Amino acid sequence: MPLEQVTQRAIHILSREMGVADTMRFLKQFVTGAGNYTEDRETLFADLTLDEILAEVKKSRSSNSAE
Hints:
Distance between the termini: 39 Å
Largest sheet: none
Helix content: over 70%
Number of strands: 0
Order of helices and strands: HHHH
Structural class: mainly alpha
């Protein structure tokens, strides 16, 4: 069986067993990003203090644990 068919079959099975959202979360961990991570983060967080960033992380974690 060609690799493309194996991949399609695996995605179908994962979607059926785990649901589309969890399948996408699983597959996302294998996708390589593009661009310059360091420059992107410096731009994204340029106007924030470390305390503000940490507060956002804590807020995000607490809302995710409530799900």
